[in-house]
Every structure is written in C-alpha cells, then in structure tokens.
Amino acid sequence: MKKKNPLKSSGVQTLLASLLCVLLGLLLGYIVLLFINPAGAGQAIVAVVKNFLNYSKASMQMKYLGNTLVKTAPLLMCSLSILFAYKVGLFNIGVAGQYCAGIGVGLYAALAWNMPWWVCMLLAMAAGALLGAISGVLKSYCNVNEVISGIMLNWITLYLVNMLLTQVKEETSPYTYLLTSKNPGALLPSLGLGKLFNNNQYVGLAIPLSIVCAVLVWVVLEKTRFGYELKATGNNKNAAKYCGMAEKRNIILTLAIGGALAGMGAAMLYLTGYEQWQCSTSSVPPMGFNGIAAAFLGGLHPVGAILSSFFIQHITVGGAYVDKTMYCAQISDLISAIIIYLCGFVLFMKYAINASIAKREEKAALGEQASQADAPEEKGGDQ
Questions:
Q1: Residue 359 CB neighbours (<10 A)
Q2: What gap in Å lies between CA 267 and CA 106, rounded to an integer?
Q3: Could you give the CA distance from residue 23 to residue 309 in angstroms, rounded to a whole number?
Q4: I need a labelling partner for 271 at 20 to 30 A (CA). Which of 50, 120, 352, 356 fits?
Q5: pTM of the model
C-alpha cells in the first residue's frame, strides 16, 4: 500500500505556509533594520518577537501578556468576519467600518444612555450588521462590488462616529469619557480572569467569548445546512439559485453576520476601558485591516485564526519595545506592517507547495513508466 504524503494534508500545508510567511516577514524586517542602523538590528528584532518577555519579573510578564490578549480578542473577531465572508465568496473589506460603527454605537450607548455592557454590545453588533447589510443589498440588487461599497462606507462611518462621539467627549481633550468613572456598569465582567494576569483590570469576558465565537463560526460553516447553503451560494450563485436557494438573501445575511462579528469585536475592546476613542481621528482603525492578515495567516480556518490573531497582536505590541534612541518611533509600526503584509501570502505559499508536490509526483510517475518499459526487454535478453 502506497504511503500518503503528509505534505498533501491541507492542515500541514497551512502550517508550513504560515510559518514560512512569518519567517520571511521577520527576515525582511531585520534587513530593513540593518539598512537603518546595523548596530542594533539584531537586538531590535528580538525585542519585537519577545514582546512581554522583555520584562524580567514574572508578574510584569503576566500583566503585559494580559494586555496583548485584551487586544487579541477584537482582532480575532475581525478575522472571523473576514473569513466568514470569504468562505461564501465575498471579500468583506468593509470590516474596518463595521468595527468603527460598533465603537461609535457601543460607546454612545454606554456614555450617553448609561446602558449596561450587554445592551451596549448588542447595539454595537447591530450597528456592524446594519453596515454589512448595506453592502449586501448593494451587491445583491445593484451589482455593486462589496469591496467598493465597503471602502466607501469605511470613511463615511469614521466621520459619522467622530460626530456622534463628540457629544460624549471630555471638555479639555478630543477623547471620550472614561467608562470607569462615567458608567462602570458598561464595563465587561472580569470573571476573575484579571487575577491570573497580575490583577490586570482589562482582562475578562472578551477573551473566552471571542474563542467561543470562533468555534461557533466553524460549527455554522462546516456542520450546518445553513453554512452549506452559504458556501454553495459563494461558489456559484446561479447554481444555488437553480437549486432553490435564496442567493440574494444569503449574500445580505453573510455580510450582516460579518458586520455583527466586527461590531462585537469593537465592543470587546472599548467596553473594557482599555482605550478611549479620539474624536479627531482621521483614519479608520487598523484592527479591521489586520484582521485580513490574521484570517489568511490562519489558513481561513476559525481555529487557525485564534493562533494567528495572537501572533499578529504579539508582534504589533512587541514593536513598541524597539530602542527609540537608535530608531525612529515609526520603526515598530514598519516592522509590524512588513510581517503582517507577508502573512497575506499564505494561499500563494500553499499553491507553491502543491505545485512542487505535483511536479515531484509527475517525475516519479515518468520514472516508474520508464522502468516498467525497460523490464520486458531485459527479460527477453536473458532468454
């Protein structure tokens, strides 16, 4: 019996492709540092990779690990939003705007209406879902590409959120009020998890909830009839229509679910009190775009997205530990951006691995045929 090549496994290919992309990203980041200042290049790239391990005390390491996890949860939700739509044949580049809408509505409900955290989260999800549904309607009924409508809505949403949250900002600064002082009831429950991370007050419900969402997305896509219909619509909407599936409804529903996931991610970060919104913000939050890299680095699999989201957030935060006396303040963002950019090439790497395997198998098959053709001649010669 012929042994199966383990490299043909999709999981193994994804793992190898992801590791290769990460290593290439780190290598390119190191080369950039060498060009700027070779003296501290090695130390700088190590600092990025170490992140919270740059601290010598275990208590500080746990505290800053907690901070990384706090920002991993919303990134995971954004990556789930991207991969959910991608599995259905849609590219939800509007996730940044949907995330932004979740911030605006969630914070406004908390600061202006004094709503509890669960109501704020539901409203944030509804805002993201509405924005996603708008792209879905334009795609289904007006044949407007979801990428075009998503990009336009990103900027429209950003400025609407700035206008909305100006009503709940501090008088002497462009930042919104602190949740801890204005409405403590809007803060996500800690569930006692903060004690594990040196009493980090920001660690709580968001982390386990995001992991549960990842598992639910996998179950919906792979184990339900609804998920099968969504994927069938994405693969061929005309065939899905012929089979009696509501292809327009499925497109709208997919982008609405993706928007709800992104809006939920926004609530997971801003309802911890970890960050305040700056009402003079002139660019959409990078979390939405980093979610694209996290989705592809995780092989477009919800469980893979958990690990890739943590890694991307790890190196993003780790960039802050680069020695600023040797490099400019933006160098950390540059290194992180290079690594994140390379993470988007996972599918290409998988294609290269498959092409290499196919070439080797073809060579082996030709060699076998040649040896079989030579065998009768040798036998005849002996006789």
A1: 10
A2: 6
A3: 16
A4: 50
A5: 0.88
